[in-house]
Amino acid sequence: MRALREVAPGIAIVVFSASDDKSTEQAALDLGAQAFISKSALPQNFVQKLQPFLPGSATPCALGLSVPASEGEAPHHPVDLLTERQRAVLAEVASGYRNREIALRLKIGEQTVSTHLNTIFQRLGVQNRTQASMQYMAWVKAHGLLG
Q: What is the pLDDT of residue 124?
């Protein structure tokens, strides 16, 4: 994936794997994948994860809108669609840290931070760090995580 990133930095990388292991998923995301899909994923989850990367996609996720909840399920906030690592990067952004500082704090590469931010912006439907931070803070408040 690193080599692919160098040759085609703007390309979306979606990893399809036989593994359900969370560490394998996180490793793929840390290396620059925008999504990780296990072959055991339910068909609707498979489509939901893949659709934002298809040409002409205007899914609720890609537009930063809430995804309609299943019956009996609470509505999703766009931040809920991020991986734990992406939320960690976003929390650092909302705290005012720059990419280099985030990379040091999270012990990941600076390019990995940039890749995560590109995915975060896409999934939240925002253009910049300020807009992403505002969505994150609204999510934190909605979850009662502000002290």
A: 87
Q: Which long-range contacts (CB under 8 A, 24 or more apart) does 33-36 make?
A: 33/1, 34/115, 34/118, 34/119, 34/122
In 3-state terms, what secondary structure has residue 96? coil
3-state secondary structure string across 1-70: CHHHHHHCCCCCCEEEECCCCHHHHHHHHHCCCCEEEECCCCHHHHHHHHHHHCCCCCCHHHHCCCCCCC
Both tokens of residue 114?
């940039």
Q: How many of the other CB atoms lie within 10 Å of CB of 20?
A: 11
CA distance linking residue 50 with residue 83, whole number of Å: 15
**Amino acid type, 87:** R
Both tokens assigned to 94: 């909302």
For the chain, which ranges sit under pLDDT 50? 57-75
pTM of the predicted model over 0.85: no
Give the DSSP letter string of 125-145.
T-SSHHHHHHHHHHHHHHTT-
Nearest-angstrom CA–CA distance, 134 and 93? 10
